[in-house]
Structures
1.
Amino acid sequence: MTGTREQFRPADHPNDHFVLTTVVGSYPKPKWLNRARDLDQGEVDVTVDGRSHSGAEIDLGFEEAHWQEALDDAARLITDEHERAGVDVVVDGEMRRNEMVEFFAHRIAGYEFHGPVKVWGHNYFDKPSVTDEVAYEEPWLIDEFEFTAGVAERPVKVPITGPYTLANWSFNEYYEDDEQLAYALADLVNQEIEQLVEAGARYIQIDEPALATTPDDHAIVGQCLEKLTAGIPDDVRIGLHVCYGDYSRIYPEVLEFPIDEFDVELCNGDYEQLDIFTDPEFTTDLALGVVDAHVAEVESVEQIKRNIRKGFEIVPPERLTVSPDCGLKLLPREVAYGKMENMVQATREIEAELDRGEITAGKAAPNAD
Amino acid sequence: MTELVATTTGLFPLPDWAKSELSDLKGHQKDDLIGGDESEEIEAQYDRAREEAVERQTTAGLDRIVEGQYRWDDMLAHPLAVHDAVETRGIVPGPYSLADLATDEHYGDGLLDAVADFLAGEIEAFPDHETLYVLEPSLVENAPGDGADERASEAVDRIAGATDAEVVVQPFYGALDEKVHAHLLDADVDAIGYDFVTDHEANLYNINEYGTTDSVALGLVDGQNTEVESPETIRERVAWVRENVPAAEFDTVYVAPNAELFYLPTSRFEAKLDALAEATTAAVEEVEA
């Protein structure tokens, strides 16, 4: 399935070959956005007439409209940052999202929040509980998409936390098991994608990090994907992102999934798992992580070019997408930017070399397929 | 007559105030986890949280009170990390689970013995305690094979010998393999715990097929789900187990959650404490009426 790719080729693309560049989604938030959030939540201490007050007790003069304006400004800024780096399909860096499960659970009927729970050490998240039948109540991402598409010159991708992860990272009080909950959520994701497509979205990425920790459930994820792609037009590109894990436990099963692209985190493990995807032959598009999202050092263009060439051991250039391993939000912002910028430059250089017939290894050879 | 004792497997979620204050004080990275040399401010926070835990359990009416194990930042592995500074009352990780979770670089095959020695030493130094819970999730999750099952039982026996308290060994996240269960019965413990939440049929099979200890601990409340079991539900579950184990009359039945509680939000955790206490109180009243 390569039919959905060409629509993302920029009009001024410099090379005949087109290796699509994009990102996984999250990006470091500007520090001022975090300060604005503290103001919005009243989580600041203020001194008035020599006395200290909690921001929750007194009026800080920070209105809801101010918070929305801050979110808009951040989304505009980070979308622009992706475009300046030269990325072909951009995102807003998920500036409006606090966390990848909470954000959606707040918008889905049937969820309740009972307070923070431990993840590990002293790290907590507001793990929600499903206490009733889940239902689609209000759009989740339409505003985010329309705003980003409105400020972006380039096409916009929409990352959505997948139903399997939404189910597994929630307390399930209502459904018989997590599988049934995942299927119910998949129907809601399908409704959301329908609306996103109506609003103009052409590139949807389903994030299923939970599959990395419970790979034996790949059939459940496959069934979820069948449900959430039902009735979605063929020209809409559907990607699946699964973070670092033992990919041999879910390959080749992922090839049966109704997706256009499988996005993997291999740079982090120095491509040790690359061979898994060569047998049997990889039949969908590959989105290959070529910069490490967990190392705060910008890889050189040369290093990234070597990483991109690894992709040609699995797919030909017209089926390769290049992206970072995972969301970049844990990196310092200048490092995140540097990685994107070098990633794009490396890709454009690889394309030029392909145009000149200089890359002949693996599936990049002109007559390989 | 069988005595019903409401208690917990320990490992409580920190109160919400302590979650944010301690993570601010201690940081979010792995290196920031407990190391035994902390500021007085951090110590004071833990003391306050511990007092609140005892008070809350007393208010709920639980029959055995624990201190909450708030210091077990890194779950079962914690006592190994702070060897000299640890303060655990009445609950210890089991030797097999602790050895299973530890990095075995120095001890080789002798690790289990070394861990059992360490735990026995810790338990001997404990203040007075009425019941000692020994948590052994790895006996289920990473079950010992032939030979190792016997050594695991001997290690439990070893630490049970280090206290005069009633000793409860609690495997969880499922049922023991039958051979592991049979070997565990050789250890001199007062009660074995059964996780009826995760797998009631296999646990029932183990009890009926091999017998069990004179007292038992029944994990009947889900330590990993926010749905709060009513006292009636808990009582029905106790009754179900007793009806389905016709051969046994237990001295004491510890009525407890199946596993640690620290992945629950505080409000649900507290509601479960209340339900446990009410279930055993009401059951006693029923018997007396």
2.
Amino acid sequence: MGAIEFDGVGKRYGAVHAVHDLSVAVAEGEFVTILGPSGSGKTTILSLVAGLVPPTAGRILIAGRDVTNLEPQERRIGLVFQSYALFPHLSVHGNVAFPLAVRGRPRDEIGTKVAAALARVRLAGLDRRRPAQLSGGQQQRVALARAFVFEPDILLLDEPLGALDRKLREEVQVELKALQRDLGITTLLVTHDQEEALSLSDRVIVLDHGRMQQVGTPDEVYRHPANRFVAGFLGLANLLEGTVEAGGVLRLASGEAVACDPRGRPPGARAAGVVRPERMRLLPESAGEGLAARVRQTVYLGHLQRWHLETADGRELVAAATDGVRAAAVGEAVRVAWSAEDVWLLPDESGEAAAPRPALAAMAPVA
Amino acid sequence: MRLRAGVAIYVVPLLVLMLVAFDVPIVLMLAQSVLSPHPTVAHWAELADSPIYLRVLGNTFQVATITAVVCGLIGYPLAYWMRGLRPGMQLVVVTLVLLPFWISILVRTYAWIVVLGNNGIVNRSLMGLGFTDRPVAFLYNQLGVTIGTTNVLLPFLVLPLFAAMLKIDERLLQAAATLGAPRRAIFWRVFFPLSLPAFAAGLVLVFILTLGFYVTPAILGGGRVPMIANMLDVLINTLPRWELAAAISTVLLAATLALYAVYRTIAARAA
């Protein structure tokens, strides 16, 4: 039994499918991130779990309880809005005490719990302040304390770090992760930031156009993406398209052979392989292996150095390495190489659509 | 600095005009209460001693209070209901609320006499339905005056309150719901406190505006519910006692300014 279960959940606005047939379960205590570009339906999923909008199909279960038709009040969820939605007329204390007060808890219990929650998010002593008197980071922590102080079954976070500047965001990420682990609370976070998703989550659900593209641990979705969208959304990806040949070789259109693990693809099948930039090694032109390429542009990122390359047949590749590795200058001819295990053949796609699939060919009328 | 000097050329004549044509005459007029015909507090003493003046002042504040309360009791639910309507319907209802503004106050006030008179539609309906066998006295008493002032002033409360309610962030109400607040708690703990500054400002505004009403008490009160403006009319046009009128105007102005200060403070908090 999962802490949150989506059972064929769908949400349609007129003809638009905001969420399409979502079936996935989040385990007790798990930190799951829904990652997707804006408009992918990720915030809609959160609203569905919170009960702010009703689904048009399927069921949602929280802690084994079917909540599909329950009001938000009855769902025992802590939701942190992207805008924080702090009550401007209440003090920090009043905001955090709100969920306890509406449940009619005794005054001294409220006092103890609010103090503990505020101490937990390092806001002790600020309880008399109004939200408007706090910084963005402090407001975010008040919203967080308000969402977990009443010990809800699950915690829902809608782009909670979106409004913070980069340095603060990295600090809060670490804090958030520690907090979630300490509380042991099942957490569903929504974000468009792939770094945030990879660094915070136990599992990532990648979403596009309302459809779940992949669900897996951060390294699964990063290293073994299910399709092109996932490969491209989780960072830079080099896509190599070609035909599988016997003996673990992917033959590119340009004629070059790339070593890979065909994972059961029959020879002759078209396939697309993904290689992450940091798996690509830059070698001198004289090296006996790899693809010949020319450096078009170099990007220095401090901790990383990136080279944008162009192969002889006009294919663009990106290689990256930690700072300090031998640099190649713009215009320099190099070779770029990688190991067979660093090539990930996308499972569901047979490369370019141009080649007719056997299945389709079989369906063609026999003359 | 050059820019400021340029602006001053345009502004200073207006300021001088305001000062000479409006402010100075008002001060001179008010000053009559202590300077006419020579420096004295006699007029103020008369004002304090005569129960009639104090009774009219008290009556005015009473009508203003009742009007503000009634406007509040009708206006708050009305504005709240309007907030929940579809945008198209909101426009229609706002127009309906505004409609009385476009009809002369004199016409509207006389219309009440037709509606509320002994042979008016209200009394005939009440008698026809058997609620009463004698006409109810809606007119020429405080009830009639209050009906009239409420009718005129309701939009002054409803429209700003409605605008303030529209500005309340829907996500705050959603947040309250996810935090477990029942509908009643969402209203009393979140919505009402957030609308309260605009509501209070509206109540104070209605109160201030009622203080200066002349036509409505004159017609619907039938002279039996004198308010400050009607008494000033008598003091100036009939008696004439300018000094006493000046003293009463000073009281009215002071009360209005004090309430305006309250209004500004509340309105600033609402913004």
